[in-house]
Write a structure and sequence with these properties.
Number of helices: 12
Number of strands: 14
CATH topology of the largest domain: Rossmann fold
Radius of gyration: 22 Å
Shape: globular
CATH class of the largest domain: Alpha Beta
Number of domains: 2
Strand content: 15-25%
Strand order of the largest sheet: 2-1-3-4-5
């Protein structure tokens, strides 16, 4: 009886402690992710990860005794809807910061909203124009497409391949990638012999690839997000294209391998280190964060955490760090994010400044190759 009473008292004490811990008003964080629609392979793991991180923070007692309240909305990958929901988060929900959106197009549409309202936003999209030029209230965690281009071109130069065909999707992500591919080519001694595009909803790229096959291209670089690049991979295999195929970091998840099937074999792409975390040396600064993220995501969702979920992990952890340092207002949070130095996250080691709201360098990317429906590290 005494043991039972003691157990009950301990349980009551824990409940009381938890209620006291969250006696203060919660800190409201907004999230905009493309959970449904064509970009759901980005938004769903991002939403899942953000929920997971916030749950863990709150289970541990919140931040300085304050609960984090995450308010998430699904943009569906629609820029107009993203703007409406950003306004809702700011005017109705009174959030102090926003993470997301998932795509470059949604992010670019929302930027004027957060800049006018002076609410910090940490985008999970990759387009370089999100933070270049710097916008005072906007940061990002996805690696810049400029860094991804540089990683591919470095490999091509090493392999002495100088003639390249590019095939980019005709949306904001593809346009940004195409701009970087063309801008950096001369620096690496690359001659772009074919410059073609495809639509986000196209289901056959045979015509473009036939043109590439008839050119002097020594490699083809496809820039897009699923499902288009998987179609490109399958069409390339059907046509018997023998030159190396490179993809952008926009397909850095097993979803691409599932969609492309056997055609994914041998394809290379730049990616954050999360896909090959186990292959990294113990000395790698990111390894502990990467393994914790992978372990926690698998525990919560019974599947592996990926490159895209990692963008949301970094965004939430950056906010956690800012708030832990005493920042609770939008202005203070913005200032603390900008003051972040050497934060070892999933996407890389982040160092922001007044002149750099992307925070990463080319070391954030590794080059991987698809082998036997998995990833191998290209050294």
């Amino acid at each position: 009886m005494r043991k039972l009473l003691s157990t009950c008292l301990v349980g009551f004490s824990l409940i009381l402690a938890a209620s006291q811990a969250f006696a203060a008003a919660p800190i409201k964080i907004g999230a905009l992710f493309a959970v449904t629609g064509p970009a759901s392979f980005l938004g769903e793991p991002e939403r899942n990860t953000a929920v997971m991180v916030v749950d863990e923070i709150n289970r541990a007692g919140g931040i300085h005794g304050q609960k984090i309240e995450l308010i998430t909305y699904d943009t569906g990958g629609d820029a107009t809807k993203a703007v409406q929901l950003a306004n809702k988060l700011i005017k109705n929900d009174h959030v102090v910061a926003i993470i997301g959106p998932s795509t470059t197009g949604d992010t670019m549409a929302v930027i004027p909203v957060v800049e006018k309202a002076q609410i910090p936003m940490i985008s999970c999209a990759a387009g370089i124009k999100i933070t270049d030029p710097v916008k005072k209230w906007v940061f990002k965690t996805a690696q810049n497409d400029s860094l991804a281009v540089a990683r591919i071109f470095e490999e091509l130069r090493k392999e002495r391949k100088t003639k390249v065909a590019i095939l980019t999707v005709s949306d904001s992500f593809g346009a940004s990638g195409r701009e970087q591919l063309k801008a950096q080519a001369r620096r690496y001694g690359i001659d772009i012999v074919v410059d073609d595009t495809y639509g986000p909803k196209d289901t056959d790229m045979t015509a473009q690839l036939t043109k590439i096959r008839g050119s002097h291209a020594q490699a083809v670089i496809c820039w897009g997000t699923n499902p288009g690049p998987a179609v490109v991979a399958r069409n390339a295999k059907q046509l018997g294209l023998t030159i190396p195929v490179y993809m952008s970091h926009g397909v850095s998840s097993k979803k691409f391998i599932e969609l492309a099937g056997d055609a994914a074999e041998g394809i290379r792409l730049p990616t954050g280190k999360v896909l090959v975390a186990d292959l990294l040396p113990k000395s790698d600064k990111q390894k502990a964060s990467l393994q914790a993220f992978i372990r926690d995501y698998k525990k919560h969702y019974r599947t592996e955490g990926d490159h895209f979920g990692g963008h949301a992990w970094d965004a939430m952890m950056l906010l956690k760090e800012a708030i832990s340092r005493g920042a609770t207002t939008p202005a203070a949070i913005r200032g603390q994010i900008e003051a972040t130095r050497g934060f070892a996250g999933i996407g890389g080691v982040f160092t922001y400044s007044a002149k750099d709201h992307a925070g990463l360098n080319k070391d954030a990317f590794v080059l991987v190759e698809v082998r036997k429906k998995g990833w191998t590290l290209v050294k």
